[in-house]
From TrEMBL:
<keyword id="KW-0812">Transmembrane</keyword>
<protein>
    <recommendedName>
        <fullName>M23ase beta-sheet core domain-containing protein</fullName>
    </recommendedName>
</protein>
<keyword id="KW-0472">Membrane</keyword>
<dbReference type="Pfam" id="PF01551">
    <property type="entry name" value="Peptidase_M23"/>
</dbReference>
<feature type="domain" description="M23ase beta-sheet core">
    <location>
        <begin position="100"/>
        <end position="201"/>
    </location>
</feature>
<keyword id="KW-1133">Transmembrane helix</keyword>
<dbReference type="InterPro" id="IPR011055">
    <property type="entry name" value="Dup_hybrid_motif"/>
</dbReference>
<dbReference type="InterPro" id="IPR016047">
    <property type="entry name" value="M23ase_b-sheet_dom"/>
</dbReference>
<feature type="transmembrane region" description="Helical">
    <location>
        <begin position="7"/>
        <end position="27"/>
    </location>
</feature>
Length: 227
């Protein structure tokens, strides 16, 4: 009888111990699951979605190609939207007034007397090339930017350096021309530099300056699309 009673106690305590171990295991498993996600379910990094440039910040795609080498370093005088007058211009002498409807890219010190190639910033046909007062040689390309038709104006080019014929497709990164000689008819008496203006829509608009912020909305701020 005593042996039977002892056996029952042993079985009883064994069951109790097994139950306690099972409960402990389940508790630890739940705690582990709540503190650590499986490797295939990772929370996004807080830095992974941080904007890397202004174009990304605006939900816009950068242009496929910069128009000149070291392009960002060249924007030193007239960015987009700068209000210009002969009294406050960073360029002297100044003959224009208004809000700058493009971006000016200056030449580097070593480029005054050498040919400086200008590259197409987007893909599309050449729709205009002429000598224009205030610009000298001008090339205009029709492109699609941010799913909208635009015209890209390249000003102060050497006219006979624009090799493509009208309606010829030009790929982004292809040479569209070369900068004209400073203070000559090739630049309409202006310094040697590139004026790049991008106008919304397919209509050709040659203006480099406008007189109101409302008018300026017709142009794209090129700097927001640069890489």
């Amino acid at each position: 009888m005593l042996k039977r009673y002892s056996l029952i106690l042993i079985i009883f305590f064994t069951v109790i111990i097994l139950l306690l171990l099972t409960v402990s295991f389940i508790y630890q498993t739940k705690q582990g699951a709540s503190n650590e996600l499986p490797s295939f379910i990772k929370q996004p990094s807080l830095t992974a979605n941080k904007p890397t440039n202004s174009a990304d910040n605006l939900g816009q795609e950068p242009l496929l190609q910069l128009p000149l080498s070291q392009a960002l370093e060249r924007i030193t005088k007239k960015p987009f939207g700068l209000k210009i007058s002969p009294q406050n211009s960073p360029v002297a002498p100044e003959k224009f007034s208004g809000l700058h409807a493009g971006v000016d890219f200056e030449i580097l010190p070593s480029e005054e007397d050498v040919a400086v190639p200008v590259l197409a910033v987007c893909a599309g046909p050449l729709v205009y090339k002429q000598l224009v007062s205030g610009y000298g040689g001008v090339a205009i390309q029709r492109c699609v930017l941010d799913k909208q038709t635009v015209t890209a104006l390249y000003g102060h080019l050497k006219l006979d350096g624009i090799a493509a014929k009208l309606n010829t497709e030009i790929s982004a990164g292809d040479q569209i021309g070369i900068l004209g000689k400073g203070y000559s008819s090739e630049t309409s008496g202006e310094r040697k530099h590139l004026h790049l203006g991008i106008h919304r829509g397919a209509t050709i608009n040659l203006r480099g300056y406008v007189q109101s912020t409302k008018e300026l909305e017709e142009w794209v701020d090129v700097m927001k699309y640069l890489k």
